[in-house]
Amino acid sequence: MSRALLLRTATALTTGLALAGTLTACGGSSTADGAGSGSGAQGGGKTVTVYSADGLKSDKGDGWYDKVFADFTKKTGIEVKYVEGGSGEMVQRAVREKTNTQADVLITLPPFIQQADGKGLLQPYAPQGSDHVNGADKSPDAKWTSVVGNYFGFVYNKKELTSAPKTWEELLDAKYKGKLQYSTPGVAGDGTAVLVKAMHDFGGKDQAMDFLKKLQANNVGPSSSTSKLAPKTDKGELLVANGDVQMNFAQSKSMPNLGIWFPAKDGGKPTTFALPYAAGLVAKAPHTENGKKLLDHLLSEDAQKLVSEVGGGFPVRSDVKPTDANAIELTKLMGGVEVFEPDWADLDKNLTGYVDAWKSATGS
Q: What pLDDT, in 10s, does the model give residues 146-203?
C-alpha cells in the first residue's frame, strides 16, 4: 500500500467461509473438499478453490471473506472452497501441488505473492476494477492485484499494560520474559514482516539480527500463524505480539483487551509499511474462469465498500472512499505513523538469506 493510498484513505476518513462446510479456525489449514483435479480446465463445475493467508475470515462467520464469498455464491452459483494458513505455507503447498494443481486463486501477503510469481505459480489476469488500484499495489504484468489494504503492526494487552510500549528496546525488559511472541519469519507473512521492519528501523540486516538475538530471551517461541497470537494477548497469556492492522482491528471487536501499536527505534518515530492481501490467478488452475469471476468480485465496488465496515481493512480501489465508523477509527490509528516502502525486489531475491540469518541469530 503506497503512502498515497493511505493519504487518500485518510482524506476520505480511511476467512473465508468454506461454503462446503469446511470451516477452519484462523491459523490452521483446511482441506478443500471437491477441489479440482489439476487438469487445467478453463471452467468446469460450479466451484472455485481459494488458498489464502489468514486474517480475513471470522470464526463467527461475520468476516469480509464470509460476506463476500456468500454474496459471490448467491450471485454466480459458484461455491467457494477455502484453504487457510500462513502466507509462506500457502505458497509452499501450491508449489508441492504444481503437477496436480488444486487452487484457483492464491491470496497472500508480500513478499510471498512475489515469491509465488517467481516460482511460476501465477498467470496474468487483470480483474475488473484493477484500473482503479494504485500501481504500487499490483504487478505491472497483471500477475497479482491487492484486494485488501493493510499495514504491519503489533498488539498489546490493554488491561495488563497501562499504555502501549513505544520502542523496540522496551521489549527487552524482563517483564516481557515469556510474555512476548511473534510468528515465524519465512512461514507467516506477519512474521516475515518483523524482519522487514526491524531491518528498516535498525538500519540494516546485521543491526536487526543483533537486536532480535537479544529479544529472543523474552520470546515464547515460534508460531506458524499470526492470528493465534491475538487471543493469547487478549487473555493476558502474552503482553505483546506481532500482527497486522486489518486482522487485529477486526479481532479487537470481540477482544476488549487488544490494543494496536507500532514500535519505534529508540529516539525515532513509529513506523510501518503496507502489507496488503494480494491475489493472483493460479497457473493451470482447475477452474480458471471461476477464479477470474471471483477476482472480479473481490475488486468490485460493492465488495470494496465492505473492506473497512466488515473487514476492518483499507479498500485498495482509489474510487472507493469509505466514511463508516471503522474507516474513521482506522484513520486515527494510523495518525503520526511513518509509512515506508520496502524493497520488495530485494526481499524476493534475498528472503531465504534473511530468514537463515534470523535462524542463526535466534537459534530457531
A: 999 999 999 999 999 999 999 999 999 999 999 999 999 998 899 999 999 999 999 9
pLDDT in tens, 320-362: 999 999 999 999 999 999 999 999 889 989 999 999 999 999 9
Phi/psi for 329 (5° steps) reads: -65, -40
The 3-state secondary structure of the chain, one letter per residue:
CCHHHHHHHHHCCCCCCCCCCCCCCCCCCCCCCCCCCCCCCCCCCCEEEEEEECCCCCCCCCCHHHHHHHHHHHHHCCEEEEEEECHHHHHHHHHHCCCCCCCCEEEECCCHHHHHHHCCCEECCCCCCHHHECHHHECCCCCCEEEEECEEEEEEECCCCCCCCCECHHHHCHHHCCCEECCCCCCCHHHHHHHHHHHHHHCCHHHHHHHHHHHCCCECCCCCCHHHHHHHHHHCCCCEEEEEHHHHHHHHCCCCCEEEECCECCCCCCEEEECCEEEEEECCCCCHHHHHHHHHHHCCHHHHHHHHHCCCCECCECCCCCCCHHHHHHHHHHCCCEEECCCHHHHHHHHHHHHHHHHHHHCC
**Residues shown for the chain:** 364
Distance CA 281, CA 84 (A): 16
Helix axes 3-11, 325-334, angle to 10 degrees: 130
Q: Which amino acid is at 343?
A: D
Q: How many Cβ atoms sit within 10 Å of the Cβ of residue 74?
A: 8
Query: Phi, psi at residue 265, to the nearest 5°?
Result: -75, 145
Global confidence as pTM: 0.83
φ and ψ at residue 311, rounded to 5 degrees: -90, -15
Q: Are strands 105-108 and 145-148 parallel, antiparallel or unpaired?
A: unpaired
Which of 40, 33, 36, 105 is closest to 69 using CA atoms? Answer: 105
Nearest to 106 by CA among 73, 77, 133, 139: 139
Closest of 27, 336, 1 to residue 183, by C-alpha: 27
φ/ψ region of 40 (left if φ > 0, alpha if ψ in -120 to 50, else beta) reads: left
By DSSP bridging, strand 258-261 and strand 105-108 are: unpaired
**In the beta sheet, which residues pair with residue 122?**
282
The rounded distance, in Å, linking the Cα atoms of 33 and 40 is: 17
